[in-house]
Specification:
This is TetR/AcrR family transcriptional regulator. The protein is an all-alpha fold and 224 residues long. The protein is 72% helix and 3% strand. A two-stranded antiparallel sheet has the order 1-2. A hairpin with a 5-residue loop joins β1 and β2.
Amino acid sequence: MDEIVRTEQETPAAGGGRQSRTNDPERTMADILKVATAEFADKGLSGARIDEIAALTRTSKRMIYYYFGNKEGLYLAVLEDAYRRIRVVEAQLQLEDLPPAQALRKLVAFTFDYQHEHEEFIRLVMNENMQRGEFLAQSRVIQELNTPVIDAVRQIYERGVSEGVFRPNVDPVDIHLAISSLCFFSVANRHTFGLIFKSQMGSAPDLAKRRDNACEMLLRFVQA
């Protein structure tokens, strides 16, 4: 690795000189993941090009393959990083401090906003569904990352049932599915839906209305 890193530390600078780069593997990997996320989200696994990712990160294919193994390994790392980022923010919502109905509303609103602000996440999930979940199935990390969100939904729901505000016998996974469906569709299908029904899917008033509708529908779904 030291030989490879030393090679990558120097890149051509304007005027024909050499420009020093910091020997920082973690930063290099983070930069590669950031650029690769955009590349895979935009072009999918088959359309993305390692050469393009290397050029945009001022590194080399050799370095990318050293860190991630191959193109598929980089794609899987991008998927894991995308799920990790949304789950890290979710964990900071402090839903346990709120009454059940308010906690559920906050979770739905967060999911709606996050997915609209991170379209690359939606596109990666869409692409992975086109792969029939082939790479997600290989990742124990993603399975583990998604356990806490179901636990959070279950805790909100069970508190609501015990307080008499939510009806019994609703599967927390079904609640999570309903949240994901309402929020995901709003991003994934906004172009076609907006064109067909002449709706301003990206306008601030429309987003606010659809976020409120999503919260209201989920609350009515579980209310006693």
